[in-house]
TrEMBL record:
<dbReference type="GO" id="GO:0071111">
    <property type="term" value="F:cyclic-guanylate-specific phosphodiesterase activity"/>
</dbReference>
<feature type="domain" description="EAL">
    <location>
        <begin position="1"/>
        <end position="52"/>
    </location>
</feature>
<dbReference type="InterPro" id="IPR050706">
    <property type="entry name" value="Cyclic-di-GMP_PDE-like"/>
</dbReference>
<protein>
    <submittedName>
        <fullName>EAL domain-containing protein</fullName>
    </submittedName>
</protein>
<dbReference type="InterPro" id="IPR035919">
    <property type="entry name" value="EAL_sf"/>
</dbReference>
<dbReference type="InterPro" id="IPR001633">
    <property type="entry name" value="EAL_dom"/>
</dbReference>
Length: 87
């Protein structure tokens, strides 16, 4: 019996076809420029507002993505990038 002990976060997602492939592979957490460049925590409220304004123009596969209120610290420079999870 195989037991899942970890979740995978795919980094570097830049295109909808990459997102669709990862979804087919059961990867539910992704981050990358398809959603946002790295931003600082204090920029998050404005970023949420911008996402809401433009979400109606995104492909359906992107509209099905919800933002986790979680930050992944990248490298050691303290910059974060939002992590996204498909429903």
């Amino acid at each position: 019996m195989i037991v899942s002990i970890a979740e995978v976060i795919a980094e570097g997602v830049e295109h909808v076809d990459q997102l669709d492939f990862l979804w087919e592979q059961q990867c539910r957490q992704v981050q990358g420029y398809l959603f946002s460049p790295p931003i600082l925590p204090e920029q998050l409220p404005l970023h949420f507002h911008e996402i809401q304004k433009r979400s109606i123009f995104l492909p359906q596969s992107c509209r099905d993505v919800t933002l986790l209120v979680t930050w992944l610290l990248l490298h050691t420079n303290g910059k974060g990038a939002p992590i996204w999870r498909k429903k």
